[in-house]
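Long-time lurker, finally posting.

We've been working with Microsomal glutathione S-transferase 1 (Neopipo cinnamomea) and I want a structural starting point before designing mutants. I don't trust myself to interpret raw outputs, so I'm hoping someone here can both generate the structure tokens and explain anything notable. Sequence follows.
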Amino acid sequence: RSGEMAKSTQLIDNEVFRAYATYTAIVLMKMKLMSLVTAYYRLTRKAFVNPEDVASFGKGDSAKKYLRTDPDVERVRRGHLNDLENIVPFVGIGLLYALSGPEPSTALLHFRIFTGARILHTFAYLIPLPQPSRALSWAVGYAVTFSMAYKVLKTVLLL
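Top reply, 14 upvotes:
Generated this for you. Predicted structure of Microsomal glutathione S-transferase 1:
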């Protein structure tokens, strides 16, 4: 029901909390997959940052050539860092939002839009798609998180 704070014993039965859990799991797994994409790019581009990572390529100068940065690896890393900067706040604010008693349809819209925006942002970074696709997808996700934070503050502080 809208406007009522959820009780912890009822969370699993709460439609909004189930939606939050679903979409949070999706974006967190997407963020985890970025680690695998980074590893793939490091291996295929043979671009490593730690000496122990290049030990299998030999010793001395023959291995040192693999201690380098690569533009493709750095692009993936920047996408992953952007996930960390945006998904982590979504997880915390989204939980507070889910507990603040929002309308289920409104909450579902927030969660879906954020998830879609983050997935689009990843594709825009990795492909790369022309700007402003990446900037817009970032801004949409940011606005959703801000909207949820505003609802939480409005509910708690009676703004």
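Before you design anything, note these points.
Residues 15-44+70-153 form a domain with the Four Helix Bundle (Hemerythrin (Met), subunit A) fold (CATH 1.20.120.550).
Residues 82 and 138 are 9 Å apart (CA to CA).
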